[in-house]
Amino acid sequence: MSARYVALSGGVGGAKLCLGLSHVLGDRLSIVVNTGDDFEHLGLFVSPDVDTTLYTLSGLVNPETGWGRRDETWTFMRALEGLGGPQWFNLGDGDLALHVERTRRLKAGETLTAITGDVARALGVKPRVLPMSDAPIATIVETDEGVLGFQHYFVRRRCEPVVKRLRFDGAERGTITPEIRAALNDPELRGIIVCPSNPWLSIDPLLAVPGLREALAAAPVPKIAVTPIIDGKAVKGPTAKIMGELGITPDAVAVADHYAGLIDGFVLDEQDASLSARIGTTVALAQTLMRTLDDKIALAQRCIGFCEKLAGRA
Amino acid sequence: MSARYVALSGGVGGAKLCLGLSHVLGDRLSIVVNTGDDFEHLGLFVSPDVDTTLYTLSGLVNPETGWGRRDETWTFMRALEGLGGPQWFNLGDGDLALHVERTRRLKAGETLTAITGDVARALGVKPRVLPMSDAPIATIVETDEGVLGFQHYFVRRRCEPVVKRLRFDGAERGTITPEIRAALNDPELRGIIVCPSNPWLSIDPLLAVPGLREALAAAPVPKIAVTPIIDGKAVKGPTAKIMGELGITPDAVAVADHYAGLIDGFVLDEQDASLSARIGTTVALAQTLMRTLDDKIALAQRCIGFCEKLAGRA
Q1: Is residue A204, in this structure, part of any structural domain at all?
Q2: Which of A122, A214, A280, B65 is the most buried (most CB within 10 A)?
């Protein structure tokens, strides 16, 4: 079987489903990952969602947090404190290896896509992990405290400021990468799955990359999204809070509406079955909370089956 | 008392005497440190002799090795290995904080001198630690295995290749820094002490900095050197091996000859008292092997007393 899938994903929540998809599909999966959260810190290029994806798929991830590395040490941060360096963004000692290597290779002129591919291979990750852009695109959060870079909003200010608007600086300079275009043009492609990531913070940046939304639309396969909202609440992170601040009712209906025109199907949590009639596209019900690896694999299989059904194959 | 001293130093051996001088002189000591060993590794600027000096004077140094930090962890190197990164040069997790901060600030256009000064203050180091140059000057080792950068010779090839010639690339572009010139022009200056570092690898690069040798010569104070060779052997490192390869008899006499014209006095180890008559300058005998802090302080006091004597003050 050579049926291939493309997933669109952000950080922790998206990576969970990607891990399930990876178990089912292996190298038949390509993951387009948000890089709007990327930033330079201490002169190092940090790519949080790409890293979370790589660590999750390689089994290196810290199972307590869902990001960073397991068995991490923090000697660097303690020494940095002794030098009077900034403490608001934690860089683990092992995690630093990835940032240092990526920074070195970016400065040597290599693309983030090429570097990420090599790291994935070195870590034994079978799916292709494709950054949404090789040009820097920065998610900027306009808040009641002023304009904040994403990590300043997310980490330094712990998502506390009220979000007024989100924008993606540099998007106009970006372009869909050849690797993403190839994945979306692959004749073996059978479906596109929008992971249960934050639509506004994690998926919108990706859809802002010139050419990407059009290439998704042109792909002649089912496109589905998995709800990141269950019973009006986000499993993790500020999705529901941000929706409220943007004047959007924080429920799965609003997420499906947000993806209108992009998707052919929506995976709604079983707890929200009563909302089915209000979802403006075909609905599949599933247990979308992924606590265990089995949960992740089951949801992955449900997504693949849904795509097959939408394509008239099942 | 405001009598000030300048020390010229390389790595581990020199730093031991600097620690002794630091205990006696505190902020009345300025240390001009070799930067010929500096190199870029993984995109990070590493300055081994400056680091060894800072770690030794702040008490952070690893007492087992004389370089690097005590209580160091190595998670970064293990993670780097997992990514297929180079393993020949070990960067400890805590040590990385200094390299990352220095690299960031150098790329922002700050001088190595300014950065080193701030780090010294943050670490509570009282003496001024002055890199020999703010422009990159690289010690290059011409060997029977070809031309090697210093760290490639010293660390990667463990000093095994036969040295044919040493050169200091970029020296012509360097210039004595304002901070070193000020230290040497200070009216309170009472002496200049060449530490027991490798004359060819650690002190010669420093003397190659345009203007530095002349400024040393112009300073109207006694200049002394402490032998790095005891009984024909180096306390540590490849000094004796390199002297042999360069066709020089590895003894204290050759070291004193090497510094002819620069120094007014030479501190010879008590074990080598029989060589006194062959030293071409005034000799002081001392126990130059520094095992304990008391040894370091005693040798520092001996050096200061020797300068006072040469100046006719004692």
Answers
A1: yes
A2: A122
pLDDT in tens, B271-288: 999 999 999 999 999 999
Count of domains in chain A? 1
pLDDT for the residue A163: 94
* pLDDT for A77 beyond 90: yes
Residue B235 pLDDT: 82
What pLDDT sits at residue A239? 87
Residue A164 CB coordination number (10 Å): 12
Could you tell me the two tokens for B29?
Answer: 């000591």
Interface ipTM: 0.91
- Give the closest residue to B24 by CA, choosing from B309, B301, B308: B301
* DSSP per-residue string spanning B53-110: HHHHHHT-B-TTTSSSBTT---HHHHHHHHTT---SS---HHHHHHHHHHHHHHHTT-
Specify if A209 maps to a domain: yes
Two structure tokens written together for A283: 């609905």
Segment A101-118, tens digit of pLDDT: 999 999 999 999 999 999
Interface contact flag, A76 B80, Cβ < 8 Å: no
State how far the alpha carbon of A313 is from the alpha carbons of A83, A297, A304, A306, B298, in Å.
61, 21, 11, 10, 87
B1 against A135, higher pLDDT: A135
B92/A73 Cβ within 8 A = no
Label residue A285 exposed, middle or buried (CB < 10 Å: 0-12, 13-18, 19+).
Answer: middle
Residue B237, pLDDT score: 81
Residues 6 or more apart whose CB falls under 8 angstroms from that of B228 comprise B13, B196, B197, B198, B199, B234, B235, B239, B255
CATH number of domain containing B116? 3.40.50.10680
Question: Which residues in A have their CB inside 8 Å of a CB on B?
Answer: 42-44, 69, 71-73, 75-80, 82-85, 92-98, 100-101, 103-104, 107, 118-119, 122-123
**Mean pLDDT over each residue of chain B, to the nearest integer:** 95
Which pLDDT does position B1 carry in this prediction? Answer: 59
E strand spans, B150-220: 163-169, 189-194
Six-digit token pair at B92?
A: 């400890």
List the structure tokens of B256.
């004193």
Nearest chain A residue (CA) to B122: A83
| pLDDT of amino acid A1 | 59
Q: Which of A237, A101, A12, A112 lies closest to B85, judged by CA?
A: A101
Q: Which backbone phi and psi does B138 adopt, to 5 degrees?
A: -115, 125
